[in-house]
Write a structure and sequence with these properties.
heterodimer, A: alpha+beta, 27 helices, 14% strand, extended, B: alpha+beta, Eukaryotic RPB6 RNA polymerase subunit, four-stranded mixed beta sheet, 22% helix
Chain lengths: 855, 76
């Protein structure tokens, strides 16, 4: 392909003459189709501007809709109008020139001064950076414009400038006389080229009077295609509607002019024409009402097509829709491995993968080509690049013609490499490669252990699937982007693909000290782990849960860690001591997963997570873990404890308040007495919250309580959650983080509270629980807290989303090079050594040293 | 009087000779403009008497490791 380097691009203003030359037809009829449904000649869909119906021929170039580029038409306005997007420039020019002699409002010396400064800049362009030039121009031209603005009269002919007023978007007044667009055009056209240069306008290519429009270019029909509805009705593009408006007024204005109508009517129509042209360019122009569709919807005109998130740039150019991709709802399937994705048959038969035909696989290719149902060939691309769709008619022929070097596109099959993605793609593990597994059903199926990196759940989430289309891409995806290589987060080295939810609860229950399984149960569980060898039974013919867990571990594993402060010891592939909790798998500095990954590799690690989650699920199902009201019923002992705790705390707080009243309270350093009191009260309330949690765990010792068991295993729920349901809700906070103190007038939350009351109950402390029910006032406080946190969440996501967008755009092409230095796309050095130490957090492993043990 | 730039938290700056600078750029496969920049008027550059186009080496201690950063002196 021949390439040319673009040296420079110059933008300029279209002159009426150029516009005339550019257009192929003058439009005269403000309508689209005649009664027969045929485009009117001289109308807005004149076939000389191109055609949109396939089959029809363009009357200008003779090409069909697909190859005709479209041609511009023009509307000749009977009276000129201002171009609203340029009126600011027109204002500057009008302000700087004399309306009598059409010269700049500067003395010759000043003009000379600015001109020489300009020439100097021009000559300096070669060796000065563009930013510097911009700065100098600004430094020079801003004071000049200011001087021009403040000039009262022309220094040459003495004409007073009068009071020039600019009223957005297109009106200009001189001493309350409204300038008409043609008068403005005359003024602008009389300014000399040399003087315009001083104002920074290249009058050689862009005369300012061209900013007043007398000829309006009409974009080709393929820019504003009309669509035929199912009912056979035609619906026109917004731009066409707007152009019809312009032409209609233009025609009426012409008729009135010819009929010699009174000046008021002419002026009204003229102004209306100005309005239509203004909204044609930008329907969101400030200080004029947007033009609306019959339905009341604002029209989408030229500026709206380009602007913003849904505009041409961000929607169609920075982000495009792609081929070889699919999207549907996701759902769980624990029987699918971590690096697999269940693909519906419907999708698998639409997506294709290239099959490169060689001497060695041509038989296999022919076999696929011969098939007429699911795993079959869709297209054959011969060596010369011709793509042929496989249909029953040409199948035999294609099989015969097939030869090494051809590419055959076959349907997606089990084991094909695909890329799986969930938006927002916030980090690299939002896109990972999964092997396709074609299944019945209409959803993508995935293992729930890989949900955390995608931040996915199954409440209706949808995800995208892409099929890499060449061998290099496939290899790269499967080696670099596979979940088994992404188990550990590049942020801190913790495991992000691990067992979670039931996958933890099950492991926890299975590995508890007093878990024993019958032979039947043991065989069932082990069969799921695909282990066909029973461990040694105990004396009474039962099997220890720990032994079942050990059967899934890789052979010969030695590991010592901690789980919920108790030791967790694996010796020679056998779990000797300890219970599995969330911590065991992959948080903090003792990670079973790190050990397995390091010693046995990613494959073994992946299968361990997969199998242990599956076994855990089976065991949970076997045992039945249910959460109901009984989990949150308080015992009388606990209730007594709750009352005692609260009374104790309130007593202390009352004492603090009494001390405060008598000025005996010792203030905290750096705080006023009142602030100190507030902080002390909050500290007391936090303390009682923690104490309540401790008491809860002390009294709820039964292992029958599923909610507490889940908290202990770390799979779901916290002590605080249970505490809020069984004991008391605690302090409700506001946006600012402090206690609730306003809401009703005179400095209180609710009318029944004495103003200035700082006791817990008056400031949003709720001492009842979800189980016992909330008192009306408590419910109010709770609602305040809920609303607060909801609002905060909404604000936070919006803000952090934008912050992230800016950050990722700024850093997107930074890359760690082979010498561990960080560079950007232009080879600029960002950091000599990545992170100062070239350490990749994924490979960081914490290890206790003998010296640490002694301490 | 002690200067602020003698503070222990200010990393040690040193000026590379033209020969050293050339070798460095060769080693890192860089053009001189690809290096991070330091102003001629920067307190450290003034102290070293560095002129535009020269390279300053900054010796930092990050964590438990000594690292070197390089900056090209620019006008300003």
């Amino acid at each position: 392909m021949q390439t040319e380097v673009i040296d420079s691009i110059k933008f300029s203003i279209l002159s009426p003459d150029e516009a005339k030359k550019l257009s192929v037809v003058k439009l005269t009829v403000p309508d689209t189709y005649n009664e027969d449904g045929y485009p009117i000649e001289g109308g807005l869909l004149d076939q000389r501007m191109g055609v949109i119906d396939p089959g029809l021929l363009c009357k200008t170039c003779g090409a069909r809709a697909k190859s005709c580029p479209g041609h511009f038409g023009r509307i000749e306005l009977v009276r000129p109008v201002m171009h609203s997007e340029f009126s600011k420039i027109v204002y500057t020019i009008l302000q700087s020139t004399c309306r009598n002699c059409h010269r700049l409002l500067l003395s010759d010396e000043h003009i000379q001064e600015y001109r020489s400064a300009l020439t100097k800049l021009e000559n300096a362009v070669e060796d000065v950076e563009p930013e510097a030039i911009e700065e100098r121009v600004e430094a020079g031209s801003l004071p000049m414009l200011k001087r021009l603005k403040n000039m009262k009269k022309c220094e040459r002919c003495g004409t007073s400038k009068g009071k020039l007023k600019f009223s957005a978007p297109t009106y200009f007044y001189v001493d309350d006389y409204k300038l008409k667009p043609d008068e403005i055009r005359d003024l602008l056209s009389k300014i000399s080229q040399e003087e315009l240069e001083i104002l920074g306008i290249d009058a050689g290519t862009s005369r300012p009077e061209w900013l007043v429009l007398s000829i309006l270019l009409v974009p080709p029909v393929n820019v504003r295609p009309s669509i035929t509805l199912e009912s056979g009705e035609r619906s026109e593009d917004d731009l066409t509607h707007k152009l019809v408006d312009i032409m209609r007024i233009n025609l009426r204005l012409e008729q009135n002019l010819n009929a010699g109508a009174p000046q008021i009517i002419i002026d009204d129509l003229w102004e209306l024409l100005q309005y239509h042209v203004t909204t044609y360019f930008n329907n969101e122009t400030a200080s004029i009402p947007p033009a609306r569709h019959r339905s009341g919807r604002a029209l989408k005109t030229l500026a709206q097509r380009l602007k913003g998130k849904e505009g041409r740039f961000r929607y169609n150019l920075s982000g495009k829709r792609v081929n070889y991709s699919a999207r549907t709802v996701i759902s769980v399937d624990p029987n699918i491995n971590l690096d697999e994705v269940g693909v519906p048959l419907e999708i698998a038969s639409k997506l294709t993968v290239p099959f490169y035909v060689t001497t060695w696989n041509i038989d296999k290719a022919r076999e696929l080509l011969a098939r007429s149902e699911y795993p079959m060939a869709i297209n054959v691309i011969s060596k010369d690049g011709k793509r042929k769709r496989v249909i029953d008619l040409n199948r035999e022929e294609l099989i015969k013609e097939l030869q090494p070097g051809d590419i055959m596109e076959r349907q997606l099959m089990d084991g094909d490499v695909t890329l799986f993605n969930r938006q927002p793609s916030l980090h690299r593990v939002s896109i990972m490669s999964h092997k396709a597994k074609v299944l019945k059903g209409r959803t993508f199926r995935m293992n729930y252990c890989v949900t955390p990196p995608y931040n996915a759940d199954f409440d209706g989430d949808e995800m995208n699937l892409h099929v890499p289309q060449n061998l290099e891409a496939q290899a790269e995806a499967s080696y670099l982007m596979s979940p088994q290589y992404q188990v550990f987060s590049p942020r801190d080295g913790d495991a992000i693909i691990t067992n979670n939810e039931d996958g933890i609860t099950g492991m926890y229950l299975l590995t508890k000290d007093d878990t024993y399984l019958t032979k039947e149960q043991a065989v069932y569980i082990l069969s799921i782990a695909k282990v066909y060898e029973l461990p040694k039974p105990t004396k009474d013919g039962l099997y220890r849960g720990k032994d079942i867990f050990s059967a899934m571990l890789p052979k010969g594993l030695d590991f010592t860690g901690k789980s919920s402060k108790a030791p967790f010891v694996i010796k020679d592939g056998k779990l000797v001591d300890g219970v599995v909790t969330k911590e065991t798998f992959g948080r903090g500095d003792n990670k079973l997963l790190v050990k397995i990954g390091k010693d046995y590799g990613a494959e073994v690690l992946k299968d361990f997570i997969f199998v242990s989650a599956k076994v855990a699920d089976a065991y949970v199902t076997l045992m039945g873990v249910t959460v109901g009201v009984k989990e949150y019923t308080t015992s009388s002992k606990l209730e007594a404890e709750r009352v005692r705790l609260l009374e104790e705390t309130f007593g202390k707080i009352n004492e603090l308040i009494a001390q405060y009243r008598t000025r005996k309270l010792e203030p905290l350093i750096g705080y006023t007495l009142r602030q100190s009191l507030e902080r002390m009260i909050i500290a007391e309330l936090n303390l009682v919250r923690d104490k309540a949690g401790e008491t809860l765990l002390k009294y709820e010792t039964s292992e029958e309580n599923a909610a507490v068991e889940m908290t202990r295993s770390g799979s779901r729920g916290s002590v605080l959650n249970i505490e809020q349901m069984t004991m008391f809700l605690g302090q409700q906070a506001t946006l600012s983080g402090g206690r609730i103190k306003r809401g009703y007038y005179t400095n209180r939350v609710l009318p029944h509270i004495v103003p200035g009351d700082v006791r817990p109950g008056a400031r949003g402390f709720v001492s009842t629980s979800y189980y016992s029910g909330l008192a009306p006032t408590d419910l109010f406080m709770h609602a305040v807290g809920s609303r607060s946190s909801e609002v905060y969440k909404a604000l936070l996501t919006a803000r952090s989303g934008y912050l992230y967008r800016r950050l990722s755009n700024a850093l997107q092409d930074y890359c760690v090079d082979h010498d561990y230095s960080v560079r950007d796309a232009n080879n600029n050095l960002i950091e000599t050594i990545y992170g100062g130490d070239a350490v990749n957090p994924v490979f960081v492993q914490f290890q206790k040293l003998a010296a640490d043990e002694d301490k | 009087m002690t200067s602020k730039s003698d503070h222990e938290l200010v990393p040690v700056h040193e000026l590379l000779s033209d020969k050293e600078a050339k070798a460095l750029l060769q080693k890192l496969n860089l053009n001189i403009d690809n290096l991070p920049k330091i102003f001629e008027s920067d307190a450290q550059a003034v102290k070293l008497g560095a002129k535009a186009g020269q390279v300053v080496k900054i010796n930092r201690r990050e964590g438990k490791r000594d690292t070197s950063y390089y900056r090209v002196v620019v006008e300003g």
